[in-house]
Amino acid sequence: MSTKDRVLSGIQPTHDSFHLGNYLGAVKQWVELQDSHDAFYCVVDLHALTTSPDPTKFRKQTLASVAQLIALGLDPEQCTLFIQSHVPAHNQLAWVMECLAGFGEASRMTQFKDKSAKSGADRTVVGLFTYPMLMAADILLYQAHQVPVGEDQRQHIELTRDLAQRFNTTYKEIFTIPSGYILKAGAKIYDLQDPTSKMSKSAESPNGIIDLMDAPEINTKKIKSAVTDTEREVKFDEKNKAGISNLLTIYGALTNKSIAESEKDFEGKGYGDFKTGVAEVVVEFFRPIRAKALELLEDPTHLNKILKIGAEKAGAVAEKTLKDTYDAMGIIPRA
Ligand code: TRP
């Protein structure tokens, strides 16, 4: 057994491409954590079913997500990378979590409240309501110590902790109580067209989102049309210069420079030169990653082999936890 702390995180395969915000806000930290931790990363296809994806697209998007994660630096030799549905214990433990969670407690999840308020009760699937219990199962099956997620997932982690504690006191000390490893705020990337909202695929227009699988010309154009302000100085000031600050964050994060160093690179330069500089950095950063992802997608046999190994490694851990859980609850094992 590894003596390193264990981390687990998940990402939904709901799009053809991850965007810059996904990378800087999450996947970059995942890559860093795989060296220092015993890391489990899962492409949460079952969670994505709550968005009713088109089957043909969904199949492609799931594989594309795996390919991009590897291209971005997740090393299947170093971490356990797998598809959630390949390990049925996730659904099985989710049911246990649903029998532990209170209806009121689940009704208070803000993400559920926001999403269901938008679509109305009759158009909201029950899976959206039970989503946090499946997420709790994802985490608890692996006895994860830390869960690297964005700020928006904090409440789901709290629920996971509560459910784990409840199980441990009611039945038996089975679960490790996980803590959220809330990803650095500095890694928060905003929409290029609306630099007060987080870069997200739910944005009204795709023009503010940098997709890693997009052609370089498209991304260059998007960065050059980023919303800025009427001043001329390339200075970090989130309050008054949200657009410029966002571009500085992007530039600094991809070049590993501090904000001060990044500002210095554009001292005395206009916004036009600044945007060209940022666009070059972004495009050159993603160029080899996009190429690598495309190369991986050309060899599905190889990709499937990686996924098979990932599912086997994950399954072994998950099945042990599930077995202990069932046993503690008095479920008779099949002879
Ligand atoms: N709900 C998470 C998100 O939208 C995705 C997720 C599913 C997850 N299962 C998880 C994240 C387990 C961390 C751990 O970002």
Biggest β-sheet: strands ordered side by side in the sheet: 1-2-3
Beta-strand residue percentage: 5-15%
User: Uncertain regions: pLDDT < 50 for 5+ in a row?
Assistant: none
Beta-strand segment tally: 5
Q: Specify Rg, calculated over alpha carbons.
A: 21 Å
Main structural class = mainly alpha
Helix and strand pattern: EHEHHEHHHHEHEHHHHH
Round the mean pLDDT to the nearest integer and report it. 95
**What is the helix fraction of residues, given as a range?**
40-55%
Profile the largest sheet: 3 strands, parallel
Reconstruct the topology from this structure.
Blueprint lengths: L5 E6 L8 H17 L1 E6 L1 H4 L6 H17 L8 E4 L5 H10 L4 H5 L2 H10 L6 H16 L4 E4 L4 H17 L8 E4 L33 H9 L17 H14 L3 H7 L5 H27 L2 H30 L6
Parallel strand pairs: 1-2, 2-3, 4-5
The protein binds tryptophan.
Could you walk me through the main structural features you see in this protein, from its secondary elements to its overall organization?
With 335 residues, the protein is mainly alpha-helical. 55% of the residues lie in helices and 7% in strands. The strands form two sheets. Strands 1-2-3 form a three-stranded parallel sheet. α7 (126-141) packs across α8 and α10 crosses α12 (271-297). The two termini are 28 Å apart. The mean pLDDT is 95. It binds tryptophan. Tryptophan binds at residues 8-10, 12, 44, 47, 135, 138-139, 147, 149, 153. Residues 8-10, 12, 44, 47, 135, 138-139, 147, 149, 153 line the site of tryptophan (TRP).
